[in-house]
Every structure is written in C-alpha cells, then in structure tokens.
Specification:
Blueprint lengths: L1 E7 L5 H10 L7 E8 L2 E8 L2 H4 L2 H5 L5 E7 L14 E3 L5 E9 L2 H10 L10 H16 L6 H14 L2 E9 L3 E6 L8 E7 L2 E7 L3 H6 L2 E5 L4 E6 L4 E5 L11 H6 L5 E2 L2 E2 H19 L7 E4 L5 H11 L2 E2 L3 E3 L12 H11 E3 L8 E6 L6 H12 L4 E6 L27 H8 L3 E4 L2 H9 L11 H4 L10 H9 L1 H11 L1
Parallel strand pairs: 16-17, 16-20, 20-21, 21-22
Antiparallel strand pairs: 1-4, 1-10, 2-3, 2-4, 5-6, 6-7, 7-8, 8-12, 9-10, 9-11, 12-13, 14-15, 18-19
Length: about 500
C-alpha cells in the first residue's frame, strides 16, 4: 500500500506536498519521494525512510515549481534501493514522472513486452516502473503532432487495456501538466479536490480525502473506475471516463485497516464504516455466545478502537484502554521478516496491568493477518494477569494473498490459510476466537451506498475481481515470501 498526491498550484507546492505526504505516512513508511515541474524542468528528491528523514530544508528548497507530485510507500515489490523509490522518471516522450499506489499482476509479462516489442528497458523490480513505461509508450503512440488532453486520455485507455491489477497514479508530463487516473475496477482509491487562491484555482489529487481537509481543499469527489483527470499547465481541468471501466469493486481492506478514520473513500465515511463493523461483530457474539462471561473489552490500538466502542456498548460490558502504543514503531505485519515483526510487537505495545488482572478480557482487532501480533498480545495479556483472553476480529479470516498492493504475498505466511478457526484459536493461544462473517463485513462497509457493485474481498474469499493467471499465486510466493525477501536484502547489503 502506498500514498500518492499531486498538486497543481498557483504558488510553490513543495511544502504542501511535504505536508500531504506526512498526512499519508500511515500508508507507507519504507520510502518517500517528490517531483516538481519548474519551468519545463523536473526536479526530484527521493529516498528510503520516513518523509521527515528523506526531506530536509535544503532538499525542499531545491524543489521549485507550482506543480508537483509526492509518494510514500511500503514495499510490495522493489524498493530495496533508493533508486527504486518513487516518483520514477522517463525522458521520452516529453519527460514523465509517476507515483503509483497498487500492484500490477501482469508486470512480468509486461516487462518482457516492453523490452521485446516497445524497445523499453525496465531497470528495477518495481511494477511502478512498468506502469510508467507503458504510459510513456502509449503516449508516444498517441502524440501525433502534439500532446493534447485527448491524446493523454487515449494513452491512459491503452494503459488500461495492457495493465491488469489495482492501481491509482499521479504523473507529471513536461509541457502538459498533472495527470491522475484510477484502475478500471476502482480497486485503489484516489480523490480530486479544488480551492480558490488569491492567484487562481488550484487542484489536488490524493489517496485519501483527509489530505484535502488539512490542506484546505474542497472535495470534488472520487475518481470513478477508469477515470482520468488532467490539469493542463494553463490551469484547465479535463476529466475523462474510459470505456475500459468495469464494475466498481474497491478493496475492502482500505476500509478495514489502511485508510484513516477521518477519510472518505467512494462516498463512505471510514469512521462510520468501522462503527458498523463493531455493531455487526457484536451482533454475531450475541447470537452465538449469548451467555458470554466477558468482563471488559480492550481494543488493539489504533485501527480497531472505532469498532470496539459500539461493540462494548451492545454487549453491555466495560470498554477500557489496556494497551498503550508507541507510535514511532511502524505497522508490524508489513515489516520484513518474522523475527523483526515479533520484536516490534513488544516495542510497540505495553499493557496496563490493572485493566487485565483477574478479568476475562475480550481483545478486539481489525484483522488477523500473520498472527504474530495477536499471539504476542494474548501472551502479554496473560502476563498482565488476565483470567481468560478472548479475541474478536472485525474482519473474516485472511486466508488468501492480496495481490493488488497490500503486502500479503505468501499464503503460507497467513495464519488462517489452511486452518480452521479453532486451529487458529489454538495457534495464537486464545481461549476463544470470534471472526466477523464476510457478508456482515460487506454489508457494514456498504452502508446505504448502492453505487458500488461490490468489493474486492479476495484476501477473505479467494475471489479476485480481475481474475488471475494459472500459477500466479505460486509464482508470487516464490518471489516474495519472507525468506526470499530477507535473502535479497542480505545480498543487497
């Protein structure tokens, strides 16, 4: 998962891009980068680490220009080296810089096509470089005697026909302007906003609406599946709906875990979605365990707090904060290597023993992925004196890899893969385990929004909205399991 932002401004945008990237830091802590367009020149800075580590006063001072894009990421593919951070750049045609959120599931085949047919060389393992070069090639084919808005959108149509997967992207095209587009199924999110400044109208594209709130932009709306937006250098906004668009099926994990609760995605409030998730989970507990002996409900911070509040209320038990979080430790399930994740849980969380001692505790988490965090938190609760430790997950068992940009590549690393719920309960050491039902989760996320055709719930159901080639999951696991990535990092070091 990554965060993207693009701003067409009426004054230098580097400082605002920096602020936007820090707002989106929850979407990726592995690398950060920014590119601005300054009087026909692309100026760029990028590197490994948090936004505050990559950018200093001197680097920001060199990023002149009133149009620019920014990117934060965690690694699903590539990014072992600083040159694999984004935005990425090609110099033909015109000069294009691109930042991408998502994952292409046919990047290997596309990379071969680009070299053999399009005469373009891919120099990294990043599918974002593949996406960029496909866009560049399609733009060259459609440029004719000059690059007009429609020729840009025709190029995006060509990209949609060739690229398969989930993606939202922002791009700078020298001499043309700021481009944004969303995949044909609308799997990955991107929103559009505007504001009036003293010098004229400004536009913004971002992964989440919270960026617009904090930077003072008005939300126009989400890009539709397959939609492209181009803000030309004269400030004109052009919107285009691609005929390549398919059914609107956003990734449900955005609502479960990744997005900030103060964001709106596809006209859905993340906060309200998570409240409904808690209500649905409480309903299941009351149906299946009406005589429960839960004394207190404790959320696993931070994402599950919103769901935990209505759950405790409906169960009629106390809500307590029993786990304190060190906010300077990154998200554990996206860290490279099981040992690193295990160490990080203890550094990340600490108990308040008074809230556990002698009580039957229901811990509530948004999801259970690899099980590393759950197992250690349950053990911490027992060490703090809990009589019994139950665990409830606001989402169903994660049994399958997410292939559209969330780092769950290897099924063998998912604790629920190949296990029954009772076996998962035993593996993590809980006295009882309650999972949300998928139908209840989808109903909770949808709310009253009937514009969506469905969701990509593939990590729960194994049904992938784009379809997958035979053998794809096996190839993915062979390339991107923990063992493979750790070996690659060691070799790179």
């Amino acid at each position: 998962m990554c965060g993207i932002v693009g701003i067409y401004g009426q004054s230098p945008v580097a400082a605002r891009l920096y602020d936007a990237m820090t707002i989106l830091q929850h979407r990726g802590q592995d690398a950060a980068g920014m590119t601005t367009l300054d009087d026909g020149r692309m100026r760029s800075a990028r590197g490994i680490g948090l936004v505050r580590d990559v950018f200093g006063e001197q680097s920001l001072a060199g990023l002149n220009g009133e149009v620019g894009i920014g990117h934060v990421r965690y690694p699903t593919a590539g990014c072992d080296r600083p040159d694999e951070a984004q935005p990425m750049y090609v110099n033909s045609p015109c000069g294009i810089a691109l930042g991408h959120n998502g994952n292409l599931i046919n990047s290997e085949r596309l990379s071969a096509e680009l070299f053999e047919q399009d005469r373009r060389h891919i120099n990294t393992e990043s599918d974002s470089e593949v996406l960029l070069n496909v866009l560049a090639h399609e733009l060259a084919l459609n440029a004719g005697n000059g690059i007009e808005p429609q020729s840009v959108f025709n190029a995006v149509d060509g990209l949609h026909r060739r690229c398969k997967g989930g993606y939202a992207a922002v791009a700078l095209i020298a001499g043309v302007g700021l481009l944004g587009f969303r995949d044909p199924q609308g799997i990955r999110p991107v929103v559009l906003g505007r504001r009036e400044s003293a010098r004229g109208v400004e536009h913004i594209l971002a992964s989440e609406s919270v960026v617009l709130d904090i930077l003072g932009f008005e939300l126009i709306g989400d890009l539709a599946p397959g939609e492209g937006v181009l803000v030309t250098l004269d400030g004109q906004l052009h919107r285009y709906q691609s005929p390549e668009a398919r059914s609107h099926t956003p990734c449900i994990f955005e609502y479960v875990y990744f997005a900030r609760p103060d964001s709106m995605i596809d006209d859905l409030s993340i906060y309200k979605v998570r409240l409904r998730m808690g209500e649905a989970l409480a309903g299941k507990i009351l149906r299946e365990w009406p005589d429960h002996d839960i004394d207190v409900v404790i959320p696993v911070p931070d994402t599950s707090r919103t769901a935990c509040l209505p759950l405790a209320h409906m169960l009629g038990v106390k809500y307590r904060e029993g786990l304190m979080k060190n906010r300077y430790i990154g998200r554990t399930f996206i860290m490279p290597g099981q040992e690193e994740r295990a160490r990080s849980v203890r550094r990340k969380l600490n108990t308040i023993p008074l809230e556990f001692r002698g009580k039957n505790i229901l811990l509530v988490d948004d999801s259970i992925v690899r099980g590393t965090t759950s197992k250690q938190i349950i053990q911490m609760a027992r060490e703090a004196g809990a009589a019994k430790v139950y665990l409830a997950s606001a989402s169903p068992p994660v049994r399958y890899p997410n292939v559209y940009g969330i780092d769950m590549p290897a099924a063998s690393e998912l604790i629920a893969s190949g296990r029954t719920e009772e076996e998962v309960c035993q593996a993590i050491g809980a006295d009882r385990l309650i999972y949300q039902d998928l139908a209840d989760l989808e109903k909770a996320v949808r709310g009253k929004n009937r514009k969506l055709d469905g969701f990509d719930s593939s990590c729960f159901s194994g049904q992938y909205v784009t379809g997958l080639d035979d053998g794809y999951l096996e190839e993915l696991e062979a390339r991107r399991s923990d063992a493979v990535r750790m070996e690659r990092r060691q070799n790179a070091g």
